[in-house]
Amino acid sequence: MIAPFIDLLSQNASHAHWVFFSLLMLAGFNLPISEDLVVLSSAVVAATVTPQNTYKLFAFVFMGCYLSDWLSYWIGRVFTPWLRKRKLLGKMVDNRRIVRITRFYSKYGVSTLLIGRFIPFGVRNFLFMSAGMVRMNFFKFIIIDGIACLLSNTIWFTLAYSLAENYQIVLSYMKRANIIIFAIFALLVFGVIGYKFYRKKKGSNPTTL
Question: What is the dihedral of CA 94, 96, 102, 104, to 10 degrees?
């Protein structure tokens, strides 16, 4: 599916940077657009069609990724009060849950954002929205996320650019890496939940002598 998209952009290379930027901004609204595939596509177009615009394409892609994170943050921050007023959705952002998330970010906020930037399948957007939900300091958020965003974009863009003629190989490795990262993240989450459930169950059933 990615080949026709790259061919279309190659035929309209003069506007490609705006297309990539727009797609990434839409991803900030939680639309099902793969940020990683957009970065890969931009690098392939830069290497095979418009090498003279490589830095422009990278800059637009980076800013698209970065600003879309800001969107996710502010969606979480602005719409949380509205969600609380809704009977069904309000359960997702009740006070106890907000308190737990706030405590979590106060302890692991930096590492969560740095690592979360590499977790695909909507997880990164959820983490950014939750950072806004608990009103994490915005300046701190954009500094941490900026570092992580620059690092992840540089890695994927450089790799795809250097192997542009065989970008399907990069796509294959990217998919595998995303699946592995997501699987590790899921295992950690379920592991923590399982451990807490075990501790709670053990505490509610003390051993009697």
Answer: -120
Predicted TM-score (pTM) of the model is 0.72
Helices (H), the chain: 2-11, 16-27, 35-48, 54-84, 95-116, 123-133, 138-162, 167-204
In whole angstroms, what is the distance from residue 141 CA to residue 137 CA? 6
Task: Report the C-alpha gap between 101 and 124 in whole angstroms.
Answer: 15
CA distance 101 to 109: 10
115: confidence class by pLDDT, cuts 50, 70, 90: confident
pLDDT of residue 170: 61
Six token digits for residue 57: 């394409």
Number of neighbours of residue 154 by Cβ within 10 angstroms? 13
pLDDT in tens, 3-21: 666 667 667 777 888 999 9
User: CB–CB of 57/97 below 8 Å?
Assistant: no
Q: Please, what is the angle between helix 35-48 and helix 16-27, to 10°? A: 170
Query: Cα separations (Å) of 92 from 18, 74, 109, 148, 151?
Result: 35, 17, 20, 28, 32
Q: Return all residues near 142 (Cβ < 8 A) that are at least 6 apart.
A: 70
